[in-house]
């Protein structure tokens, strides 16, 4: 059954060899963060993601899933979704109980935090890949490929002991395997299709230049801001002529509230050398028509002057003409 599905998917994606223009996410994964501040209190945080777009949340008070997009359930029926949410509820509640019960065996010292990521990814022209990794206190702990458990070196004796224990519960590993290798790819394909319009949309960036806080005497911090673009990949850099400036510093691509992205790229230059620098923005929505903004662009200043001066000037000319006519 699994083989059949993989074969089918492989065939499906073979037809996509010339799919280089494919836009949008290729992976779905769940993130779990479980905090254990002390022996009496613990909390789970959960979320579901398509690459960098969050589509599911987890209400830790009501232990229930939240669906952040109208298409977050993909092609799964309400009943299938309810069953999956039930599985995660039982799992998350059980997780806290088990960790507490085994805390002394594993010599865990409060406070500690456990992180998990599990999901699947469509690989260009190949069968989807699934993954599950766990971390303890920010260090890799284990991974679960192919119904086995592989302790991470950073996990030390605890990870080895954990894997040795879990491997005895083949039922659990098989259930995880079904979720990862069957349900996940099926859900991913469905949700990519259900959310196609939103996920493959193209939103053009808006870019503008400004001056940042002065980095030092006789120096300028040039700031190029780019906002409102979708999807996330974007290329922004400072140039002199066609020459990329190695001092360009790229910030993190940050989310806007409307689901589009924002980026800030700065350049620290000597005050006398700012003229002639430009900020260039390449993005898939621009269809090869890069945005290029020049620092201290005389035209833009000229334009602003024109916009400010023109209306009073016209008014004055109008008055003058009328005055002359009257005369
Ligand atoms: C355990 O941690 C929680 C959350 O930080 C805190 O509110 C609570 O008072 C702590 N309990 C004890 C017994 O320290
Ligand atoms: C979870 O939330 C859904 C609505 O989003 C609701 O229909 C369902 O009854 C809730 N389940 C539980 C167990 O609270
Ligand atoms: C999965 O199992 C196969 C054989 O059972 C093995 O060759 C492969 O390396 C395993 N994959 C990973 C990621 O360990």
Automatic annotation (TrEMBL):
Keywords associated with the record: Adaptive immunity, Cell membrane, Disulfide bond, Endosome, Glycoprotein, Immunity, Immunoglobulin domain, Lysosome, Membrane, Signal, Transmembrane, Transmembrane helix
The reply on keyword Glycoprotein is: yes
Q: Where is the Ig-like domain?
A: 185-285
Which PROSITE patterns would you find in this protein's record?
IG_LIKE
Q: Where is the signal peptide?
A: 1-18
Pfam families xref list: C1-set (PF07654), MHC_I_3 (PF16497)
Query: InterPro entries given for it?
Result: Ig-like_dom, Ig-like_dom_sf, Ig-like_fold, Ig_C1-set, MHC_class-I_related, MHC_I-like_Ag-recog, MHC_I-like_Ag-recog_sf, MHC_I/II-like_Ag-recog
Q: Its domain of life?
A: Eukaryota
Name the predominant localization: membrane
Q: Does the keyword DNA damage apply?
A: no
**Alphabetical list of CDD domains matching this protein:** IgC1_CD1
Outline the subunit composition.
Heterodimer with B2M (beta-2-microglobulin). Interacts with saposin C.
> Any idea what job this protein has?
Antigen-presenting protein that binds self and non-self lipid and glycolipid antigens and presents them to T-cell receptors on natural killer T-cells.
- Tell me the protein's name: T-cell surface glycoprotein CD1b-like
Supply the source organism for this entry: Echinops telfairi (Lesser hedgehog tenrec)
The opening ranks of the lineage are: Eukaryota, Metazoa, Chordata, Craniata, Vertebrata
